[in-house]
């Protein structure tokens, strides 16, 4: 890839979670056992005075597809929970977005290496207006790597 592709950039009143795809493995020849294609990403988490910045976060396009699907449903009815988690992670990012009456509460954690107990737990406050671009970015990723993402939103 010539330029990093933004998978999502979730903004809140007290920080952000940004995921950019740096490298896609075996595309389009072979898919991953995790669903979709394995990807190496640049991950930035900034919450208050705490931060994570790595260019070696490993995910898969299947996790992004699942997250997009959950997030789209929550956005449309402004209620519900969308989860992001990668099956069998090499490093672990997981978070839940809880939509309620236009407000979004995000709770999650990041562990760079499962061999160590270092863990960043985080919470972000947001609202549905921040998610128009998030859905658009996830849909763009889906169009590139998954033929099952529909054209309409």
Question: Explain this structure to me?
Answer:
This protein has 153 residues and is of the alpha+beta class. It has a single domain (5-145), classed as Transcriptional Co-activator pc4, Chain A. The protein contains 2 helices and 8 strands, in the order ββββαββββα. The strands form 2 sheets. A 4-stranded antiparallel β-sheet has the order 1-2-3-4. A hairpin with a 7-residue loop joins strand 5 and strand 6 (92-100). The longest helix has 17 residues, at 61-77. The chain is globular, with a radius of gyration of 15 Å. Mean pLDDT is 90; it is low at 148-153.
TL;DR of this structure?
The chain contains 2 helices and 8 strands, in the order E-E-E-E-H-E-E-E-E-H. By secondary structure, it is an alpha+beta fold.
What would the keywords be for this entry?
single chain, 153 residues, alpha+beta, Transcriptional Co-activator pc4, Chain A, four-stranded antiparallel beta sheet, globular, disordered C terminus
């Amino acid at each position: 890839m010539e330029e990093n592709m933004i998978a999502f950039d979730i903004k809140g009143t007290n920080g952000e979670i940004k995921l950019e795809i740096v490298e896609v493995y075996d595309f389009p020849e072979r898919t991953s056992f995790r669903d979709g294609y394995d990807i190496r990403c640049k991950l930035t988490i900034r919450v208050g005075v705490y931060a994570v910045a790595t260019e070696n976060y490993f995910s898969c396009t299947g996790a992004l597809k699942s997250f997009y699907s959950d997030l789209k449903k929550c956005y449309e009815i402004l209620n519900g929970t969308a989860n992001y988690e990668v099956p069998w992670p090499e490093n672990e990012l997981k978070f839940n977005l809880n939509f309620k009456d236009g407000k979004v509460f995000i709770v999650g954690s990041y562990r760079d290496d499962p061999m160590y107990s270092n863990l960043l737990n985080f919470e972000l406050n947001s609202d549905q207006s921040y998610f128009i671009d998030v859905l658009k970015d996830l849909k763009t990723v889906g169009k590139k790597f998954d033929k099952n993402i529909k054209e309409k939103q």
